[in-house]
Every structure is written in C-alpha cells, then in structure tokens.
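Translate structure to sequence.
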C-alpha cells in the first residue's frame, strides 16, 4: 500500500535492496569457490559450487529467521523485514540450484531416473552413519518452494491470513530439517568439526532469538489488565502514549493497541490482517495506522483499510476519565466505527522517524541505521562463507583428464572386470613391463557391453584417463574400441605373473566405486557419495574395498564373487557403509582381488 492508496510494485528502495542482495550473493559464491580452489589443488569447481550454493542458502535462511526477532529488539532491522520476501525467494533459488546440481552430479547418467535414484539409494535409516540425509533436504526444499510460490499477496488474499501464516510458519520445520540434513551429511563425509560448530551456533542463534523475543512478548500477555466494576479496563494514562504512536496491552485475552493522534484516542486490535504484524509498534502516517512490518494501513476510528483496499480489523470502545484511558474489552466487529475519545488539543508530533517501504526514501536517521544493520549482516554472511570454505576437508587426490582424449593400444582382458593391458609403462611415469587400465563407459556405466567377446584381443581404445596413485583407468569415449593387431615391436603375449592366492582373509573397510574414487568425483567416499556410488556400481563399474594395512597405509581390493566373477550389482547396496568381508585374496599381477564369500555390515 502507499500514502496514495495505490498498489506499488517497484521503487528506488527496492531496486537498491535487490541490487545489494544480488551483489552479496555473488560475492559469497565467489569467495567460497575462490577460497576452496585456492587452498586445495585437488578440489573441483563442481563440488565447490554445490557446496557454495548450499551454504549460501543456509546462511541466508538463518539471516531471514533472525531478522524477525531482531526487528523486535532494534528498529534498524524493520526496513530489512519489510522486504524479507525477496530474501526468501532468493534463498529458494539458491537451494533449488544446490539440489539440482547435486542430483545431476551424483544421480544422473546412471541406470535409473535421477529422482528415483535419489529416493531408492542404499541408505539405511536405522543408523546415523547411513541415514538418507538427502531426503531430509528434499522435504525441506519442498516446503521452501511452496512458501516461495505462495509469497505473493494474491495467495495471502486467496488463502486468508491465518491459513497463509500457518503455511509459512512451516519455515521452522524446514530449518530443522536442514540442520539435520547438514549435520548428518557432515558426519557421514567425515568432515572437520568446524562446520558442525558453525551449524550448531547458527541454530542456537535463530532459536535463541526466537525464544528471547517470545519471552519478551510473554510479559505483555502476563500483564493482562482486569476489568473494573463497570466492565471497562484501565489501560494506561493518556500521557503514557506518544503522539501518533500506541500503547499495547492485553485485555479479554486479546492484544490491543491504543493510539493517540490529533487530540483523540482510538483503540484497535493489535494484529495486522496481512501477516499478524504488531500494529501497536507502528505509527499513524497520513492519518492511517501503518503496520511496521509491511506498511499495511487502517483508519484508527473504524479499523478499515482506505479504499480500494478491503482489510478490516476489530475496534474497541474507548473513553478517557481523569487522564486515564479505559477500554471495553468486548471487541466490535471488524470495520465498526467507534467515536474516538477526546483529550483536548493534540500534543505536537515529536521527531519520531518511521520507515514506510513504499515512500521514495527512508528518513535519514533510519537510513543510517539500516546501512549499519545491512553491512553487519553482509559481513557476517561473507565471513561465514570464507570460514566454511577454509575449514573443508581436503579433496581426495586423483586425476580425471576431462576433455582430453587418448588412444591406447593393448590387450583386452574381459574378466573379472574389463581392463586393457598395455605393454610398457603406458601413460605412467614409472618403469613397468605393462600397465593395466580398468575400463569403464561414460557416465555411471561399466564397459562390459563394449568389450563383450573381445577377451584376449588387441585393440585401440579411445578415452579419458583416470588415475590415482598406481591405479589407472580409461573411460571409453563412445564405442571406444577398435580391434587391431599388436604393434610390430610388441610380442603377442604380455609377460604377466600368474595369479597367486594369498589365503583366506577377513577385511574391514568401505566399498566404493572405482571410477569416482580414482579421480572423477570429490568426495568419492562416505554417505555424501553413497547415491552416486550406488548408481556406478549397479551400472557395472568395478567395486573396490578401501581398507588399511598393518602400517596404516590405505590399500584397495577389487571385489568379485566367491568364484572370481564380476558381482557389481550385489555390492551396490553396501557402498558408503562400513563392512566386513571374508574371502580368498588373489594377487593377479598388479591387481589384488578379494573373492568374497561372506559380507557383514558393520554400520
């Protein structure tokens, strides 16, 4: 609404507000991704953006929920509260982008629809270490999107204020779900405790402010005035009410606001019809009670919004006796005119600046306070982004030469999983009689279909190199396989030692998919990567067991069934979880293989 009772969409203040908001979000993302990539050479831009978008949305939601109680304690936050919906919609877009990129990164290009994969991963809700934290985030996102979609006043008018308000109070449910989502995700990824401490701190800030504001309001309710013998309630002295302002009280179980203006006193309900804002904290502007939250206006004598607006609030009969203001606790029907009580000449209006969002400019004193509050919130958000980026765990080492195709000539080995044995050192720097490249297809698929029937054949393979430590892999591009004779100077048989049994062992560790672990994804372990690993392993990518030897060094074993055949689909439900595997260990030249006979889930 405006002083001229015309709907206003945009003005200079809103352009400045949204420009500052967009710039702050861009600065946050730039700082987060920049710090992430500069401090860790193994980090990837995709992961940095996913985390940056998610943390930006969470920080913004924390600020949104803090603004309400802060505005009750300090009026400098009221102008920010006035346009808080813009923050909410921006937060929703950030959360949606985070979710979309995460689903694409971890669940796309597999053997299931990404959303089906998200909902049917190998998570186990019985244990915190394997709880499907993604689902918590998905539910929270649904609530946030519903709130953003209904943020326009069209829905407020269509649903009516109580229903709309109840719907938007679900934001606290969404916030609780997001706290659990982030906490479980951090725990399952094995990250440092600093993000968890910041998470707990932000939740304590939000709920602490809400409790403090509620406790402050509780005092008003507990000080409910009682009626005298004639049924009227002595509310306050006339001199206790500032000109054009109000005194709030609780009578008959309801909050009221008694306004003083132009030598008169009027009493109305304290609850704005828009979003239940506290009218008593507002001011009479241009002859109308103006809500401090969003500028909705009502005439003080009848509680009606000026035409063409139709909102109405309850009014109360009021009288002045001996300098005291008395109110009949029985409310009149909304919009009922009540003759104001006269108190003589009106007191001169004090210099009491008040923010009205539809006015072209805020009063100078309020503008200075708003700048201070806004700069403080922006600095807090940017500092949080830098801290979160700087305290992430280091990304796993690994090489994924995306966009750089290579051609290798060697002998295909189809079992237990497709591989290419290349004479000599291949693409590696070390001297070796041969180099084995595990083979996978593009996306989350193994190479079984591409190499079927080619066991022992020499071929040219075209693809992208993936490597970590001494383990090599090739992601085949397209068909990727061209059968050729061996090079003239290469013997037909590659000298490889015969497989040797190392005996029956029981090993504990985590099952991962080899493609992501070797370098394609970072992180490639833990619950954060579970959905992606499930799709990769079920799609035929060789599963590995990550464990440590007696010296604490990490080692990996290729997993097969008890007979030594591929068994990717079987291991898909165990990825991202701690397991205990028992079986015969075979040293197949450079490749340790565990022929699993028994699987026990530790957690």
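Result:
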């Amino acid at each position: 609404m405006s002083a001229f009772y015309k709907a206003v969409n945009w003005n200079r203040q809103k352009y400045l507000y949204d420009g500052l908001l967009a710039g702050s979000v861009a600065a946050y993302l730039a700082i987060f991704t920049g710090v992430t990539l500069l401090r860790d050479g193994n980090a990837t831009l995709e992961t940095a953006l996913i985390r940056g978008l998610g943390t930006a949305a969470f920080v913004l939601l924390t600020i949104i929920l803090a603004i309400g109680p802060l505005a009750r304690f300090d009026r400098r936050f009221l102008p920010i509260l006035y346009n808080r919906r813009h923050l909410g919609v921006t937060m929703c877009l950030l959360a949606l982008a985070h979710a979309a990129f995460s689903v694409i990164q971890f669940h796309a290009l597999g053997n299931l629809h990404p959303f089906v994969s998200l909902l049917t991963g190998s998570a186990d809700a019985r244990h915190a270490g394997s709880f499907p934290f993604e689902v918590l985030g998905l539910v929270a996102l649904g609530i946030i999107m519903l709130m953003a979609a209904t943020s326009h006043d069209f829905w407020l008018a269509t649903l009516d204020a109580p229903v709309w308000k109840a719907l938007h109070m679900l934001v606290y449910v969404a916030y609780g779900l997001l706290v659990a989502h982030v906490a479980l995700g951090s725990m399952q990824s094995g990250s440092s405790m600093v993000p968890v401490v910041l998470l707990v701190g932000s939740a304590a800030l939000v709920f602490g402010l809400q409790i403090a504001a509620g406790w402050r309001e509780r005092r008003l309710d507990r000080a409910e005035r009682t009626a005298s013998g004639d049924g009227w309630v002595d509310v306050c002295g006339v001199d206790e009410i500032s000109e054009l302002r109000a005194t709030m009280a609780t009578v008959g179980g309801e909050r009221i606001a008694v306004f003083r203006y132009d030598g008169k006193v009027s009493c109305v309900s304290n609850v704005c019809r828009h979003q239940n804002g506290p009218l008593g904290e507002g001011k009479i502007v241009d002859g109308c009670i103006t809500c401090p939250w969003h500028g909705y206006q009502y005439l003080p004598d009848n509680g009606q919004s000026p035409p063409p607006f139709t909102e109405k609030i309850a009014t109360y009969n009021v009288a002045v006796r001996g300098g005291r203001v008395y109110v009949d606790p029985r409310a009149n029907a909304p919009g009922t005119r009540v003759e104001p009580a006269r108190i003589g000449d009106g007191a001169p209006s004090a210099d009491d600046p008040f923010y009205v969002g539809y006015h072209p400019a805020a009063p100078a004193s309020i503008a200075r306070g708003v700048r201070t509050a806004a700069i403080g919130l922006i600095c807090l958000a940017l500092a949080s982004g830098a801290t979160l980026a700087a305290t992430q765990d280091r990304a796993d080492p690994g090489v994924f030469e995306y966009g750089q195709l290579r051609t290798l000539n060697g002998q295909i080995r189809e079992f237990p999983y497709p591989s290419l044995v290349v004479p000599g050192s291949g693409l590696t720097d070390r001297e070796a009689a041969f180099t084995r490249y595990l083979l996978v297809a593009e996306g989350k698929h193994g190479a079984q279909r591409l190499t079927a029937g080619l066991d022992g054949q020499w071929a040219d393979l075209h693809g992208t190199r993936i490597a970590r430590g001494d383990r090599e892999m090739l992601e085949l591009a397209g068909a990727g396989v061209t059968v050729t004779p061996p090079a003239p100077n290469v013997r037909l048989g590659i000298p490889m030692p015969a497989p040797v049994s190392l005996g029956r062992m029981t090993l504990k560790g985590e099952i991962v998919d080899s493609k992501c672990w070797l370098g394609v994804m970072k992180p490639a372990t833990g619950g954060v990567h579970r959905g992606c690993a499930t799709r990769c392993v079920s799609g035929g990518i060789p599963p590995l067991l990550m464990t440590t030897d007696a010296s604490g060094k990490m080692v990996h074993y290729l997993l097969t069934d008890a007979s030594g055949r591929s068994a990717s689909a079987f291991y898909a439900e165990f990825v991202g979880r701690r397991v205990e595997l028992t079986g015969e260990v075979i040293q197949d030249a450079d490749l340790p293989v565990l022929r699993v006979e028994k699987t026990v889930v530790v957690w």
